[in-house]
Amino acid sequence: MKIVVDAMGSDRAPAVEVEGVMQAVEEFGYDVALVGDEALLKEALRKYKDYSDKISIVHAPERIAMNEPAALSVRRKRHSSIVIGMEMLKRDEADGFVSAGNTGAVVCAATLSLRLLPGIERPGIAIVIPTLTGASVMIDVGANIDPKPMHLFQYGIMADAYARYILHKENPSVGLLNVGEEESKGTDFAKEAHTLLSESKLNFKGNMEGRDIYAGSVDIIICDGFVGNVILKVSESVIDTIVKLLKNEIKANIIATLGAALASTAFNELKKKMDYSEYGGAPLLGVDGRCIISHGSSNPKAIKNAIRVAAEFKTQDVNRHIVEELESY
């Protein structure tokens, strides 16, 4: 198993990527190729005096920044860490690709280099979110902000395979995010998507509302990339705000401080369940390869787990299952 890591993607690159790779190699034993500025990578690796020979460096003199236009940057910066890493995956020199860099650039590079799976019209970014009943998959959260109803149907097929073989959910339930539960609710776009999903072999439960997302009423939540990305960013902000407010209240009251100390085990377990780094990153489903997109503010643990997810994606042969399911239609 060999995973390529874009070492220049995160907000604190390449230190975060290097440390995450070190953890992954030690825990999982995979071979990992760090793609990025060779001088910077060697400097970051210097603190690990006897780092494993399972780690290699692939020089990429260019970097695509977060604020750069995706398609233009991918075409102009052919020697960037994202493009070079994706080309390695295309040539079967690696089994998976991980990046905490410019999401649009990763989607564009993957689509241009790897192409789409047979029958898939648009890729979708899926994220695993914690719920009251465990974990659910939400797709799409930013790859396609202007989809067609057929794309949402295909998201359901792709997420179903991912939930089955990565999250090990048997016959995962599917919900379509809408403004109401009734079939008559929503735009013509939502109604047509509802019809397609209803007529599929998926375990479709119908429309769902925003309040149902974290209740865990379904295993798979389908929405367009615009709505999904807004939900993702709002959720991150709400969680961060609640944590800060809770800390302020605890510090302001001695009794609350003592209570928090007694409840530290429960707080730690809650923190673990809500920690995005436990899930590693979001798979880009629909491309003919295994790409995991991590958050720009990822820590080493998130990079380590993104590498693990990329390897599981390969081991479980998720793309083959997606194609087979589509062929059955």
Description of the molecule:
- The protein has 329 residues and is of the alpha/beta class.
- It folds into two domains: 1-120 and 286-316, Isopropylmalate Dehydrogenase (3-Layer(aba) Sandwich), CATH 3.40.718; 121-284, Isopropylmalate Dehydrogenase (3-Layer(aba) Sandwich), CATH 3.40.718.
- The chain is built from twelve helices and eleven strands.
- It has helices at 15-28, 38-45, 70-76, 81-90, 103-114, 149-165, 188-198, 225-252, 254-262, 264-274, 300-315, 318-327; strands at residues 2-6, 31-36, 55-59, 96-99, 124-131, 134-139, 173-177, 203-208, 220-222, 282-285, 291-293.
- An eleven-stranded mixed sheet has the order 3-2-1-4-11-10-5-6-9-7-8, sandwiched between helices.
- Helix 6 packs across helix 12 (318-327) and helix 8 crosses helix 9.
- It is globular.
- The two termini are 33 Å apart.
- The model has no long low-confidence stretch (mean pLDDT 92).
